[in-house]
Amino acid sequence: MAHDNHQRGGNGNGQDLPTMWIDPQACQGCVLCLKACSAKAIRVRGGVAHILPQACVNCGDCFRACPHMAVRCRTTPLEHMRRFQHPVAAASPTLFSQFGYRTTPNQILLALERLGFQQVMDMGWLCEMNSVAMEEYLLAHPELRPGISPSCPAVIRLIAMRFPSLLGNVLPILPPRVFAGKVVKERLAQSQGWDPRQVGVFHIAPCAAKMVGPHDPVVLDQPYVDGVFSFREIYGPLLQALQGLEEDHTLQKCSGAGIAWAMSGGQAAAVDVEHTLDVAGFDEVVRILEMLEAGRLRDLRFLEAHICPDGCLGGPLVVENHYRAKSVTLRQMRRFGAMSRVNRAKIKQFMADGLYDWRQEASPRPLPPLDPDTSQAIAKMKAIQSLTARLPGIECGVCGSPDCQTFAEDVILGRASEDLCPFTYQRGGPQPAPAGRQTVTVKDLVDKLGLEVAAGAGGLGREVKGGYISDLLSDVMANAQTGAVWLTIQAHQNVVAVAVLKELAAVILVGGRAPAEETVAKAEQEAIPVLTTPQGAFDLAGRLHDLGL
Amino acid sequence: MSAGLAPEGGQPEFLRAFDIQAGDFAGAGNVSIAVKNLLKELGFAPEVLRRAAIAAFEAEMNVVMYGGGGHMEVFIAPRAVRLVISDHGPGIPDLDLAMQEGWSTATPEMREMGFGAGMGLPNIKRNSDQFQITTAPGQGTRLQVDIFPR
Fold first, then answer.
1. Given an 8 Å threshold on Cβ–Cβ distance, is A295 in contact with B32?
2. Which whole number is the average pLDDT over A180-188?
3. If you average pLDDT over each of A17-31, A43-57, A81-95, which comes out highest?
4. A68 Cβ neighbours under 8 A, 6+ residues apart
5. DSSP for A201-268?
6. Which residues have a Cβ under 8 Å from the Cβ of A222 and sit 6 or more positions away?
7. What's the N-to-C CA distance of chain A in angstroms?
8. Which pLDDT belongs to residue A431?
9. Are A381 and B43 a contacting pair at CB < 8 A?
10. Chain B partners within 8 Å of A288 (Cβ)
11. pLDDT for residue A539 is more than 70
């Protein structure tokens, strides 16, 4: 499984790491993820795809599209549960759909217990409770039209970025996974006499979107959820635990309503208010949000929106085919009945106690305009229009941008050079670089010298124009050339700042040194490749010379 | 017809035009969404986006339902958004009546879809800072909406 970098999105240093990333070693530089990305958050530069973190909503479409397994999801490795004396499992009810018709939710919950979790939450039950809480909130706030379910973090991120005016519609009711963490840490730990620092709540999820960082618009998950295990990773161990399982006690409290809660339509059916709507899939969600923002759908009281087709059953990290998962879910719904046994008075009490309250409101994170100055923005938009008109409009993606319009934006905003388009050449556009001088990219160095990419894979397409060796930052500031690779033993985060300021191609940490955590985060953010090698600076410099630098 | 006051920041310049198809209920709203996204990219404030989106949507629907098709042009200055919507329709015989809230010529089918509340033109006017309408029987209708950031 792919969690080579296992840090949580929020690693305590104030930086966000994208929950999806592309392994440059496995990436073939094709256009499949570029084309699959509805958010237009991928670019292929120098033969390597990378994700623009500020535009990515963590939908997972790139992950689904990549045939080379180059797209990785940053989830928590399973062994992290051993870091806590009291590990607690809070698995999405979607997990109940992954083991066929005959395996019941209770068996799956018992199998989780067998894996070593001290407490296993029946999230189906918490989901049913959540429906009641959302319903009560809607009834108490008739002016809220519609209330939007906060359950899909990718949708909330999409709203914060592209529909900030709708953030106020997101229901301020903690989604089940976070509620589970809160209940465990604020109530269960006390009643059991557990040291709260030794309680680790792990969400078991069909996607990586729940790995959020502190700068994410929805920081609800923290500090209640300590990690996210993917279905794919826990599937094998669970399958084993299900073998010869003795069903000697009952953990399942949920009915079919909870089992189907995360399937598209599950919440819209369970929240009993007039006029509910469920929508699933990136483009369809955008369409509905556009309508809402234009002041339409005024009758709507509740909106359930999932970024994945069929809701969480179609999550990128599920194991079961999502049509079959749906069939299993429908079967279990019939078997356990759709009538929820949740006690409404109890939920009202929880709400009055503030147990469902958000710690912090979701904050807007709008995509930046073309320019902060409107006159400049207008000029840039005109330049984009006129460049778009000169482009072929066949949306081939060869330039590394997802379509001609976005390529024109990238060129005008200085993120791409116009000669990347193979068609403007033929029309007498910019000429290719004179033959005889090969350009060398950072990726070439990685491939030829066997360097490890520790961070900043987004910048592997940078051109290398020379090299510089020094461990004194001021010396580098004074003397390194633009486009140089910098060989150093300094591994702290200021190295990245210097590389950004001097527009260096990459930083190579020699002598087997590893970058600090902050260095990794900063390098990811700035797309400055940080490479590592056991070789010393002297040997490596010699090999760089041999490559023609 | 006067060109309207030139707002501070100069006369708005033409930026882009969009076609609106007659009777295209399925695609209706797409032009106003495109206009809103355009303004968003230019960095106009949410308040401007909101007013422009409402005005554009109502105008677009009028062209779809009554106007027999037409187009919407966007003009921009740093402190002004101008939308010009023209159609090839029959024109509006009694403008005073059409500007009254609640007055509508919508068919039952249109009302079934939630249109025809008779709020379109008044709603456009309410959300604009300058509003001009030019119409005559047989001549089509031209609407000019100016929105100035507050």
1. no
2. 93
3. A81-95
4. A26, A27, A28
5. EEEEESSSTT---TTSS--TTTTT--EEEEHHHHHHHHHHHHTT----S------HHHHTTTBTTHHH
6. A10, A212, A214
7. 37
8. 45
9. no
10. none
11. yes
Q: Which amino acid is at B48?
A: V
Closest CA to A161 of A216, A222, A214: A216
- Which residues lie across from A484 on neighbouring strands? A466
| Beta strand pairing call for B80-87 and B130-135 | unpaired
> First vs last Cα of chain B: how many Å apart?
26
Q: Which residue range(s) make up the domain with B119?
A: 13-147
Give φ, ψ of A255 to 5 degrees. Answer: -100, -170
pLDDT tens string A391-410: 999 999 999 999 999 999 99
Which tokens belong to B147?
A: 């929105």
**What is the SS3 assignment for A318?**
coil
Cβ pair B41:A375 closer than 8 A: no
CB contact under 8 A, A371 and B43: yes
Residue B96 lies in a domain: yes
CATH of the domain at B63: 3.30.565.10
Give the β-pairing of A506-509 and A530-532: parallel
Give the model's pLDDT for residue A218: 57
Q: Does the pLDDT of residue A75 top 50, yes or no?
A: yes
Domain annotation covers residue B1: no
Q: Mutual orientation of helices B30-41 and A374-390 as an angle, nearest 10°?
A: 120
Out of B15, B42, B49, the one facing A374 most closely (by C-beta) is B42
Q: Spell out the domains of chain A, with CATH numbers in brackets.
A: 78-352 (no CATH), 369-432 (1.10.15.40), 440-546 (3.40.1390.20)
B18 pairs with which residues across the strands? B72
For residue B3, being part of any structural domain is answered with no
Token pair for B105: 């010529």
Indicate if the pLDDT at residue A100 is higher than 60.
yes
What ipTM does this complex have? Answer: 0.78
Residue B143 CA to residue B147 CA, distance in Å, equals: 13
**Looking at residues A506-528, what average pLDDT do you find?**
88
Residue A519 and residue A418: Cα distance in Å, rounded?
Answer: 32
Residue B43 covered by a domain = yes
H helix intervals, A373-419: 374-390, 404-412
Tell if the CB–CB gap between B42 and A372 is shorter than 8 Å: no
Q: How far is CA A490 from CA A384, A485, A496, A510, in A?
A: 42, 14, 10, 9
Minimal Cα distance from B57: which residue of A?
Answer: A294
Please give the tally of structural domains in chain B: 1
